[in-house]
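Researcher: Next entry: Relaxase/mobilization nuclease domain-containing protein (Flavobacterium frigoritolerans).
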Amino acid sequence: MVTIIKTGHSIHKVFYYNENKVKENVAECIGAGNYPIDVDKMRLTIKLNRFLKQLELNENVKRNSVHISINFDPSENYSKEKLMAIADSYMEKIGFGEQPYLVYQHHDSGHAHIHLVSINVQRDGTRIDMQNIGQNRSEPARKEIEEFFELVKAQGNKNSPDFELKPIISGKIQYGRTESKKAITNVLNQVLLSYKYASLPELNAVLKQYNVLADPGNEDSRMFKAKGLMYRILDDNGKPIGVPIKASLFYNKPTLKFLEEKFTSNTTNQVSDIRRVKNAIDMAFFKAEISLCELVKILEKDGIDTVFRKNAEGLLYGLTYVDHTTKCVFNGSTLGKQYSAKAIQERCASSNQTEQNKESLTSEKSHTVTFEAPNSEIMATLFADDYRDNKYVGSDTIMGQLWDALTQSEQAANYLPYELRNRKKKRRGQSNNR
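Model: Predicted structure:
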């Protein structure tokens, strides 16, 4: 079970997003909480006005809409009654048990999931604090519900230690296979609130894994100067394809202003998260001499994608690491100088050079000169009868010593034979008769 919580400025947009799904026959409203009548007897105006009347109690609350999706493993297919029981339990545990809410079951993806629509203004006009609701309230609630209802756990699956539920995105977007806005929306729903990114390049490092790009335009364009933002679909070569869609046209308004707030609130510099990525990189170099491509493959096995940032000439100037396990995104320089693009390239080059040196050393050994003892005919020609009389044979003879010297390892450059050394001069006045 995976939960995603989003807040917004307009309950109208959240409400009509789900009701439009109902009109398209890809969703249905299966229940409601704290409404006066059953959901199958309510018209649209009754559903919406229940929210609007309570919001009038505190008009100072601007981000007043709450949109929650609860996603289940593809192997799970529960009845409406069980889905409602899960929804009621979850809302109670996160502090929304007394709030009005609607529950929609969606059928537009490969896994079962429900959407909950609510508001964060209470009956007495006070506001429900949404700060850190995911970590402090939603996460404990999720774990308790998984145990109580015997659901497939998002983490720690016994049959697969590396199991991780990916509820929204099943793979990269393929242009033309699904409606562009819908496909991009599915990606944004998963990424924007799940991953921790501190800049637009870091966010795009994640989005590009699904063929999506958040494009602010060129620095001299009107869109860039006005702080506008468009979302594009990319082809398999990373090139934009199709018509871009303005951020303001998506129901959850993933504009640049919204993203800048996320940049500020995201805490990516958590020591344990950084250490995990650094350790994975260091272990990759420790195991073997590797190339840059081999490093990418090794990190992929650890759930870490490596994104290359290149200039117009195709030269690599930056690396970004996307850790899908901790949902953290780090530029190489954030981890430290030795994890930047330049340092990683040097480490890979150093590993390759080490391997080349080993090959060179092996080659040198194979070409080592071996000395053989001169045959008897050569020795006889050089030394005539003395050789035949064995005067120059054996290590205790001058010839033998010469032969030993030739076959021994190279001696120091300043070595001087004893016979050629100058004898120590006698001091003056010393007597030879002493």
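Model: Note for the record: The two ends are 107 Å apart (CA to CA).
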